[in-house]
Amino acid sequence: xxxxxxxxxxRGLRPxxxxxxxxxxxxxxxxxxxxxxxxxxxxxxxxxxxKCRQFSKKYLECRMEKNLMARQDMSELGFRKETExxxxxxxxxxxxxxxx
Length: 100
What we know:
0% strand; elongated; Cytochrome c oxidase assembly protein COX19-like; CHCH; disulfide bond; Cys_alpha_HP_mot_SF
């Protein structure tokens, strides 16, 4: 039998979690309302996540406020700042770029 244990794992080393993609579960249900709002939006929109971005943003903000994930600028998570949107769709912005 190997020195690593019954299943071959090294018992002396601590696992190191990846930088992104893994975060504490919400065992205390601190962000359940935001999560349910997002999931309901997905269900009602035929799972088109673009239509539910505001709920996704609120959910992520809740997780950051409750220390369930590391604080990050929302632009790093794929959300533009409010001043950048100005009520225009991305198609409208792209057409302006092409015209110029």
